Amino acid sequence: MMRIVTIGMSHQTAPVELRECLARDPANVDRALSAIREHPAIREGLYLSTCNRVEAVYTTDRPEEARKEILGLLASLGEVPADALLPGLYTLEDMESVRHVFKVASSLDSMVVGEPQILGQIKDAYVQATQARTSGVIVNRLMHRAFHVAKRVRTETGVSDAAVSISYAAVELAKKIFHELTGRKVLLIGAGEMAELAARHLLAQGVGEISVANRTFDRAVQVARGFHGKPVYFEEIGSELLEADIVIASTASAGYVIRHERVKQSLRRRRNRPLFFIDIAVPRDVEPRVNDLGNVYVYDIDDLQGVVEINRAQRQEEAVKAERIVEEEVLRFQGWLKTLGVVPTIVRLKEKVEEIRRAEMRRSLPGLGELNGEQRRALETLTRSIADKIVHDPILMLKRKADRPSRDQVLDLTRQLFRLDDDENKS
Predict the structure, then answer these.
(1) Do 19 and 148 lie in a common domain?
(2) Closest to 251 measured CA to CA, from 237, 261, 240
(3) Which entry of 41, 51, 242, 391 is annotated as an active-site residue?
């Protein structure tokens, strides 16, 4: 019996120092696919490697032999003993494996539920598998259904709508204020990790120039280079406020870096253009009174955290809907998988009827006199249509019995009635 198996580790089961052993070398994917292709116990499979998960998804009719091969492969790729991997690994079989693949593709098993990157990573893994010729009928179908499930979850639920990280929540708020972020100017003050991440999210949304101010100018140059931005002296913040649309503040200053009076002065020359402050610093960089000024919006870390918590609760509600979609699709895939058991008989039945049709055509054509091309095509169409109609009901019955306890009896009876095995034994 063919099994679908997933063996892997993720952020939920293994620490980063173990995951990075397997993910540090990009060439590991090619090595893994080569091993999957060459091992006789593994029929088809793919290998997914990201910073948060490493998984082999494969089919086998010798599960224990295949499992030993995959464990040895992972240990070899990570250059660690197999015993060190075992505590962080999970093994899922058949519909549990299918369910897991669907949930991963739909970002229901991600560190941040609803994040979109994982689907692209799975698509890349599938492309690599097809190029390495390790995918087959089952893996192909599994992956295409996984992409379909992910699309349904994205369009039928709001699981990806609400930001659940501080940096991304800041970007979502900026979009609400400005509606369109393309071409907006950003001023980054300081170089905290969350602030830099927010700046990267903004770049992804199409903002224009990013200026970077830091008390240490060398650090401003270094950070600006990463954004293809413009480094500025800390003392230039006042003049930069005249042009900026979005200000991200994340310094280690003990006092306010952006004061009410400075922003008030800049507003006179800004001609009522909105100014959005993202204050991720603790202690705060932006004086709270700045938020009282017209067309100025200030969100500090607590404000953003509140947005995140609300959004996280919304995502969890939407995740319940997404789980239902996954279960629907698992049942559909299970139904398809069961039809594979009747496919060889259906194929052989069609082949036999076609062989009979061609043989009878060869016998009958000499007695029909000279036929032109159009008459021959009409005769071919007529006989093929008759043959298709004869096998239509038997094929329909076989498909309906695919997931029934009586399937094997029906298959045996069909093969006897049409003498399918007799023909194969002659060849």
Answers:
(1) yes
(2) 237
(3) 51
